[in-house]
């Protein structure tokens, strides 16, 4: 019997969100709706601009990172998770680790010399989020940061696509895949962001060639990855590389595929406030349900409901009141 349901690897980040106008977002120069990797100098310049223009619109720091958000959602949905990541020996690193421990997630990460990564999320009035990320010490995540024995004792390996932006990160992903395959652990991957798909197709191809059992992406990422113009065409092409997948389509729900069957699960109608972390939350809730013995359809219905509650609130993770809302929905 496996010790963990999900073993995740990804970038450990501390998030800070700002509610910004369309004009201010334009002034920053960062492309709306995408994630941009930047250096420490540019990140500090952006922080200074936002503090000057909309300090009263800033939210408190919160734990972040795509895979970490997914594992938190899975843990809150009843799964047992393990997370391998890299944090600096600073107050934000301690804050990050304390948050995941509070969620019942095990980790082999210990603070190391360096500074913890940070993600600035700018949320416009239409609830779209634009992210600017400085990876900090996460950029040095490598094979040495894996915990092979925990991975072997898990049902699913969950890979954050953002990791492949560095050579060391890609090597760590490939090593984790090798360990998982040798231990009979299923491998799940998220494409993470349209920018990642555009800039790192070769690296993603390498990961797919090793083998992926379940793919998570949104419809924009799916079409970019497959060089198609519709969700339906993208689904057909993806099936050639990975027959099991979930393509999230916002308010239109999700396209799921398992084996030789593809189907559409309708979305849940809500008025969004902040879409940050919606895809991460969906993946965590979905994988939790799979680990509990549910099928893809049941998992997708539950994950849709979970993500629909998240986007009605600011932030990328559930609060206690949101968990209560999910239980009663």
TrEMBL record:
Sorted UniProt keywords = Kinase, Transferase
Q: Can the keyword Transferase be found in this entry's annotation?
A: yes
- The residues covered by the Carbohydrate kinase PfkB domain are 53-319
* Keyword presence, Glycoprotein: no
Kindly give the InterPro entries that the UniProt entry links to this protein.
Answer: Carb_kinase_PfkB-like (IPR052700), Carboh/pur_kinase_PfkB_CS (IPR002173), PfkB_dom (IPR011611), Ribokinase-like (IPR029056)
Q: Which organism is it from?
A: OM182 bacterium
Family statement drawn from the similarity comment of this UniProt entry = Belongs to the carbohydrate kinase PfkB family.
Q: Care to name a GO molecular-function term for this sequence?
A: kinase activity
Write the protein's name. Answer: Adenosine kinase
* Domain of life (superkingdom): Bacteria
What's a Pfam family in this record?
Answer: PfkB
């Amino acid at each position: 019997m496996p010790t963990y349901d999900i073993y995740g690897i990804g970038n450990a980040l501390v998030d800070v969100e700002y509610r910004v106008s369309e004009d201010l977002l334009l002034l920053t120069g960062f492309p709306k709706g995408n994630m941009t990797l930047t250096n420490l100098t540019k990140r500090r310049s952006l922080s200074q601009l936002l503090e000057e223009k909309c300090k009263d619109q800033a939210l408190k720091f919160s734990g972040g990172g795509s895979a970490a958000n997914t594992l938190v959602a899975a843990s809150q949905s009843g799964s047992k998770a393990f997370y391998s990541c890299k944090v600096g020996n600073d107050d934000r690193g301690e804050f990050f680790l304390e948050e995941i421990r509070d969620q019942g997630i095990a980790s082999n990460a210990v603070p190391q010399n360096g500074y913890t990564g940070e993600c600035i999320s700018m949320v416009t009035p239409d609830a779209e989020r634009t992210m600017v990320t400085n990876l900090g010490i996460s950029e040095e995540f490598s094979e040495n940061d894996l915990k092979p024995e925990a991975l072997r004792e898990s049902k699913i390996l969950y890979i954050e696509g953002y990791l492949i932006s560095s050579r060391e990160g890609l090597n760590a992903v490939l090593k984790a895949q090798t360990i998982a395959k040798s231990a009979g652990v299923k491998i799940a991957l998220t494409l993470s962001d349209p920018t990642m798909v555009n800039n790192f197709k070769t690296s993603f191809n390498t990961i797919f060639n090793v083998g992926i059992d379940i793919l998570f992406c949104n419809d924009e990422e799916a079409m970019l990855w497959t060089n198609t113009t519709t969700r339906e065409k993208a689904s057909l092409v993806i099936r050639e590389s990975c027959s099991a997948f979930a393509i999230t389509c916002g308010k239109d729900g999700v396209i799921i595929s398992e084996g030789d069957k593809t189907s559409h699960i309708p979305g849940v109608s809500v008025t969004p406030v902040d879409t940050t972390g919606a895809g991460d939350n969906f993946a965590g809730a979905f994988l939790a349900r799979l680990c509990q013995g549910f099928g893809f359809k049941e998992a997708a219905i539950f994950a849709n409901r979970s993500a629909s509650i998240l986007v009605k609130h600011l932030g990328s993770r559930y609060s206690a009141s949101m968990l209560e809302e999910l239980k009663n929905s």
